[in-house]
Design brief:
Shape of chain A: globular
Number of strands of chain B: 11
Helix content of chain A: 25-40%
Oligomer: heterodimer
Number of helices of chain A: 22
Largest interface: A-B, 43 and 46 residues
Largest sheet of chain B: 9 strands, mixed
Structural class of chain B: alpha+beta
Number of strands of chain A: 19
Strand order of the largest sheet of chain A: 2-1-3-4-5-6
Number of helices of chain B: 5
Shape of chain B: elongated
Distance between the termini of chain B: 71 Å
Helix content of chain B: 10-25%
Strand content of chain A: 5-15%
Largest sheet of chain A: 6 strands, mixed
């Protein structure tokens, strides 16, 4: 069965929509394979607009790994803006991939990467546009397996009705296992229909099939039990972990976006995992243990990626890039190599210490020094102990002083508001901190035009973190604290004019909180919101808090709970959490102890440099944290120039 | 308060960028599905192609060096073109044909680098002052289109409204119009209009022409017409287009 491209029917509609190029595909390093030459076909979706989705590393990695297999193809699809969605419905054009413009409904798998829960309504919109039944229960043997991955898949319960499967953890290897399972099932003549395939998928480590588990509730609304309803499916699903990053140097040839995207640079992931133990950080908790890519592996990926793309900038990606055991050598090696080639290097995620400024100086040796970003996260020393972000005010002032003295003009500071145990005073201390930064900066630089921007967002308690039990601050509390903070900053005419203040109101965080810690009963709210026209919830111009509140008020009381029950309610130790059967490797007892330590304002060290504190990940995986140093140099050491002298004839 | 030590602003260290040793003029096409690229999208793709092709492109000085690339009036988003022009400055002499092949190999399939010649004499912008367009109207009889075009040519001024990001803008389509003709397309209910327009400010776009034909003759094509820019150049005394890359004595 050859599948027709919808492009001939789509093309006449494109002049009528905004930025038509985003639906056209054909990017450098993209792949379109012959439909009939393969047995298994994946449609990979990032549930947001092209400009956000196309630079996503996860999708890019899986796209390349799957297309390298001769028995498999993978194409990409993104959320369609309302202007084109209306025209597609009018003209009966289903959700399509941008590579082959093939209908998504014809693929074997629709794999959706959820970095954030705010993409859930876009999943429903895509399923509807794709003409795929909205719920797993309605799908037949001829529909794709709808599979969710990414960080949000560590609690996929709110979308349990809409997906057939969720994958926990790293995707590099599990996509191969899933492809093998589908190929085997097809070769065997698709035995036992769709359920037969789902049972085969359930046997793969890291794959969770929600419909094979029944959830029951107590009269007070809490979960009574989560139990398998099929023989042979595991009671607890463990996450997948790619142990040796050097064996997986993807993306080898990154996609070069054809329309402008949010990240116009090439990224090389220098390590995965983080052991800093920041208690609010879901990414740091669920991606343990730390696995470093070697300095030589990084050098090769940068070189190969630049040659394949022509990008002008390389970002060294990780959760805390300065923590790589050989980051100094890496920065120097890359700076030496690309000093003369108009290629800039950046370290997106940095911690507060002076070493970072040295690194940033190295990476911007001959370039503009515009801004440096640090994340103290909490305004007061006390709250930073609660969240285990071990930065003292002295550290911060020393770091920014070094930055301003080295010619950096702007420092951006990230904070969160609404953290557990937080008071108004904790937040108001952010103003003191920012003013002191300006005072120290003016002194160190000898200039009055240096700036500091305070960027602050609402905290959302996330599953698989010590704060999974915490009460989420209400939107009203967050808005009140942010407004007091703003007046406190602007009250100082002299220093305040050098301080920028960026914030989001507490409303989107409240909904993110509902979706993050929600259970299967929240699915009805998501569906209601989508039916009322909700989508692109990550975009302030499309997000409607009222629509979410109204839909929650309509659906949740039917099952005896409400929005606040999911957000501001603090959970106790014995409550069964919706994601307890999904194992991120962290020991629940350790998380609980760490939660109690947080309330006691007791900090925990980084286990990369200090003894193990028994979070449970390493023994559970029969592994250890993997860090260097390897002592190797970045080879080859030949500098690259923009005016490469190619042999002339 | 302590005494402030005035400091000089950081400036790039090291020698100035090497000077441009060779200027090349390039004709490229933008066709097929990639005609939906905006000019900004194309410019970014072109710069990256130069990097992949490892061409010794010149740069401006300063903290944010810009590659020596000068664009001449690009076709609007969504409109195909057989004749777009750009000038690049290299820091070393290269064989233009090798540059053409290297760039062409580094760009996606629907973007072709067709010609590459050394710059000579008057500037590229002076050589590109008018363009020839072709519009294909399917399900429109040539007679009907011819009548509409005659109305357009016969008018003294045809002002149409164009929606821009900042509001409405009035554009006179007749003024810059040098000439237009209508022929029969591959089938009898397909009409082809060919026209030559001067580069005016603002530049006339295909949508303006469609709007003008509607205003003067009520022409409403059942299917949106397709447009392609066939040629660009300077007009000679007889209002003929002169190829900008052809060597003029």
């Amino acid at each position: 069965m050859t599948v027709e491209s919808v492009f001939p029917r789509l093309e006449p509609l494109l002049p009528q929509v905004q930025k038509p190029i985003q639906y056209v595909g054909g990017e450098l390093n993209s792949t379109t394979k012959d439909w009939d030459s393969v047995q298994v076909r994946w449609a990979l979706m990032y549930p947001d607009a092209y400009e956000v989705g196309v630079p996503n590393q996860g999708v890019m990695i899986l796209y390349e790994i799957l297309n390298e297999r001769s028995d498999c193809l993978a194409e990409r699809t993104y959320a369609v803006w309302p202007d084109l969605a209306a025209l597609m419905r009018e003209n009966d054009i289903p959700q399509f991939t941008v590579d082959g413009h093939r209908p998504v409904k014809n693929f074997d798998v629709l794999g959706v990467s959820f970095s954030t829960e705010l993409g859930y309504t876009n999943l429903l919109e895509a399923l509807d546009l794709a003409q795929i039944p909205m719920t797993a229960a309605e799908r037949t043997i001829d529909h794709p397996i709808v599979l969710g991955g990414g960080h949000a898949a560590f609690n996929p319960e709110p979308i349990a009705d809409f997906i057939d499967a969720a994958v926990l953890g790293d995707g590099e290897q599990v996509v191969g296992d899933i492809t093998d399972a589908i190929a085997g099932w097809k070769s065997a003549g698709r035995p036992d229909g769709r359920t037969g395939l789902l049972l085969r998928l359930a046997a793969i480590e890291g794959v969770y099939i929600p419909q094979f588990y029944d959830v029951s509730y107590r009269p007070d609304g809490q979960i009574e039990s989560v139990a398998p309803n099929q023989d042979g499916v595991p009671a607890v699903i463990s996450k997948r972990t790619t142990m040796n990053l050097d064996e997986w140097p993807y993306p080898k040839a990154p996609l070069v976006p054809i329309a402008e995207s949010v990240h116009e640079r090439m990224s090389v992931e220098i390590f995965r995992g983080c052991t800093r133990g920041c208690r609010f950080c879901q990414a740091g908790m669920i991606t343990r243990p730390v696995r470093e890519r070697s300095i030589t592996g990084i050098g090769e990926m940068v070189e190969r990626g630049l040659a394949a793309t022509g990008f002008e900038e390389v970002g060294l990606l990780s959760l805390s890039s300065a923590d790589h055991s050989e980051i100094g050598e890496i920065a120097k090696g890359l700076a030496d190599r690309y000093a003369d080639s108009k290629t800039s290097l950046s370290l997106p995620s940095t911690r507060v210490d002076a070493f970072n400024v040295t690194l940033a100086n190295e990476l911007s040796r001959n370039g503009r020094r515009s801004g440096l970003t640090f994340a103290p996260e909490g305004g007061s020393e006390r709250i930073r102990k609660v969240i285990n972000k071990m930065v003292s005010k002295e550290d911060l002032i020393r770091t920014v002083t070094t930055a301003y003295a080295n010619g950096w003009r702007q420092v951006k500071l990230y904070f969160m508001c609404g953290l557990p145990t937080e008071t108004d005073e904790d937040v108001l201390e952010i103003a003191e901190m920012a003013k002191e930064v300006i005072r120290a900066g003016r002194e160190a630089s000898g200039r009055n035009d240096i700036r500091c921007t305070v960027s602050i967002g609402g905290f959302v308690p996330k599953p698989h973190t010590p704060f999974q039990w915490a009460s989420q601050a209400s939107a009203a509390t967050i808005d009140r604290r942010l407004s007091r903070l703003r007046s406190e900053i602007s009250a100082d005419k002299n220093l305040g004019r050098s301080i920028g203040f960026r914030y989001h109101d507490g409303k989107p965080s409240e909904i993110e909180g509902l979706l993050s810690r929600g259970d299967r009963r929240v699915g009805a709210v998501i569906r209601k919101v989508w039916e009322a026209g909700g989508h692109f919830d990550g975009w302030s111009e499309h997000f409607s808090h009222q629509r979410w509140v109204d839909s929650a008020a309509e659906e949740l009381p039917k099952v005896g709970v409400d929005l606040e029950w999911y957000t501001v309610r603090e959970r106790d130790e014995l409550e069964i959490l919706p994601w307890d059967h999904l194992d991120s490797g962290l020991d629940k007892q350790w998380l609980w102890d760490d939660w109690l330590d947080a309330l006691d304002e007791t900090e925990v060290d980084d286990c990369r440099w200090t003894p193990c504190y028994d979070c449970g990940v390493c023994p559970g995986m029969g592994t250890d944290i993997q860090v260097g140093p390897t002592g190797k140099k970045m080879l080859p050491l030949t500098p690259v120039s923009s005016a490469i002298s190619a042999p002339r004839t | 308060m302590s005494e402030r030590r005035p400091r000089k602003q950081r400036a790039p260290t090291g020698p100035p960028p090497p000077p441009v040793a060779q200027r090349l003029w390039i004709r490229y096409t933008k066709t097929g599905r990639l005609r939906f690229m905006s000019h900004r999208d194309f410019a970014r793709a072109f710069e990256r192609a130069i990097r992949r092709a490892k061409l010794p492109i010149g740069f401006s000085a300063g903290f944010t060096p810009h590659p020596k690339i000068s664009w001449v009036g690009a076709a609007p988003t969504g409109v195909a073109s057989e004749a777009e022009y750009v000038e690049i400055g290299l820091t070393e002499q290269r064989d233009p044909e090798e540059v053409r092949v290297a760039l062409n190999d580094s760009l996606p399939a629907d973007l072709d680098i067709c010609e590459c010649v050394p710059a000579t004499g008057k500037s590229l912008a002076e050589r590109v002052t008018a363009s020839e367009w072709q519009f294909t109207f399917t399900q429109v009889s040539p007679a009907l289109l011819r009548e509409a075009v005659e109305h357009l040519i016969g008018a003294e001024q045809v002002t149409v409204q164009r929606l821009t990001q900042t509001g409405r803008k009035s554009v006179d389509v007749r003024g810059p119009l040098v000439g237009a003709s209508v022929s029969t397309g591959p089938s009898s209910d397909c009409a082809i209009m060919t026209m030559v327009v001067r580069q005016s400010t603002p530049v006339i776009r295909p949508d303006d022409v469609y709007a003008a034909l509607h205003d003067v003759a009520g022409l409403v094509p059942p299917v949106p017409p397709s447009a392609v820019r066939l040629r660009q150049g300077d007009l000679d005394a007889a209002d003929r287009l002169v190829d900008p890359l052809g060597y003029q004595p």
